[in-house]
Design the sequence.
């Protein structure tokens, strides 16, 4: 609310002013053009900042999309590799010759030889599986280490709770 004052506001032009209305109008026009120039320069500066922000946003979006595509490609490649390994193992298991049926006789050496062959095959399959699992674990660890490094995390040799931002 406006306070009602007992004094009348001072006039814009003093009553006994020596300036005429033309000089005052010229001065007002000059001041208005100065204000207009300042507003236009502020608008131009703001528009430039907005353009830069939009360009940076687009660049960050493109970079994030490229990172996502790269990670998806790596995961799909790993899944395809595991699928091919499993398929190869299943094909090898299906192609294995059946163990000959050894008739029960008093001589246990043929049965023992067949059992030893079977155990040797199983041991080599287990060793191959363990080697493949170790290799896969190393690949996943390296992928996680690289991903954490790319995301700005320092990779610790311990658990994931020991990671920190740098």
Sequence:
């Amino acid at each position: 609310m406006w306070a009602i004052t007992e004094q009348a506001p001072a006039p814009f032009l003093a009553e006994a002013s020596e300036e005429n209305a033309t000089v005052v109008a010229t001065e007002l026009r000059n001041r208005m053009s100065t204000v207009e120039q300042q507003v236009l320069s502020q608008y131009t500066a703001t528009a430039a900042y907005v353009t830069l922000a939009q360009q940076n946003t687009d660049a960050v979006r493109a970079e994030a999309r490229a990172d996502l595509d790269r990670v998806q490609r790596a995961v799909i490649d790993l899944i395809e590799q595991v699928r091919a390994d499993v398929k190869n193992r299943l094909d090898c298991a299906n192609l294995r010759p059946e163990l000959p049926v050894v008739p029960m006789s008093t001589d246990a050496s043929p049965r023992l030889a067949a059992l030893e062959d079977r155990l040797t095959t199983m041991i080599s399959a287990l060793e191959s599986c363990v080697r493949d699992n170790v290799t896969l674990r190393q690949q996943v660890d390296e992928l996680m280490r690289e991903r954490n490094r790319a995301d700005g995390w320092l990779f610790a040799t311990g658990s994931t709770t020991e990671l920190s931002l740098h």
The chain has two domains: 19-83, 111-166. The radius of gyration is 42 Å.
